[in-house]
Amino acid sequence: MKMYLSDIYTISANLAGIPGLSIPCGKDKNGLPIGMQLLGGCFKEKTLLRAGFAYETEREEEA
User: Fold this and answer.
1) Most buried one in 26, 36, 48, 51, CB count within 10 A?
2) 3-class DSSP state for residue 61?
3) pLDDT score recorded for residue 48
4) Which conformational region is residue 12 in: left (phi greater than 0), alpha (psi within -120 to 50 degrees), or beta?
5) Contact 19/46 with Cβ under 8 angstroms?
6) pLDDT per position in the chain (63 positions), as tens?
7) In whole angstroms, what is the distance from residue 52 CA to residue 55 CA?
8) What is the C-alpha radius of gyration for the chain, rounded to an integer number of angstroms?
């Protein structure tokens, strides 16, 4: 059941036919990684990759 529930949060882009990007965005209180999923419009892969790059660049500057 736990595995099924995790799929629900990750297959939405595939079902909708839109691009998706997952990037790391931190860690929880136990030190486990947390990911952020960005979804873009149809054929907007370039915009999605730019958004992911901008987030990672900004995050590196804060650290």
Assistant:
1) 48
2) helix
3) 96
4) alpha
5) no
6) 777 777 787 788 888 999 999 999 999 999 999 999 999 999 999 999 999 999 999 988 776
7) 5
8) 14
